[in-house]
Amino acid sequence: MIPVDHAMRYGLLPACVVEELTQAMGLPNDSDWVNPSVANDKSILDLLTGLDYLMLKILYDKRLVVGLDVGQSSAIVDTILFDFEQQNLIKNSVLKSRELRLSKQLE
Q1: What does the pLDDT average to over 9-13?
Q2: Residues 6+ apart with CB under 8 A from 18
């Protein structure tokens, strides 16, 4: 839940919506270990970062399926990250996250 009156008063509504939606999609909730990220309450970020973009791409990759144990999922994530690296997706993740923001604003 987002306390809209509080969020609006402090100009935090966009940041709250982004954070809550990414948490609903499966990203960490208020985690200090992930930085830079909208999931980190110590950051002042309002929109998805390159790291957030990559984490969502990994989380929703078709190769990850329900029921995998840690070892199986770790091996698949390693493969996904290797593929991302080959595609320069990691290197360009910040630009990609910014492109997505702009394209959605222009629609």
Answers
A1: 83
A2: 38, 46, 47, 48
Per-residue confidence (pLDDT) for residue 101, from 0 to 100: 65
pLDDT in tens, 79-103: 999 999 999 999 999 998 888 765 4
User: What's the confidence (pLDDT) of residue 100?
Assistant: 74
Dihedral sign, Cα of residue 65, residue 51, residue 32, residue 9: negative
Q: Which amino acid is at 80?
A: I
Hey, how many other C-beta atoms are within 10 angstroms of the C-beta on 93? 20
Distance CA 7, CA 10 (A): 5
Asked whether the beta carbons of 37 and 51 are under 8 A apart, the reply is yes
pLDDT for the residue 31:
80
Question: How many Å apart are CA 10 and CA 48, to the nearest integer?
Answer: 19
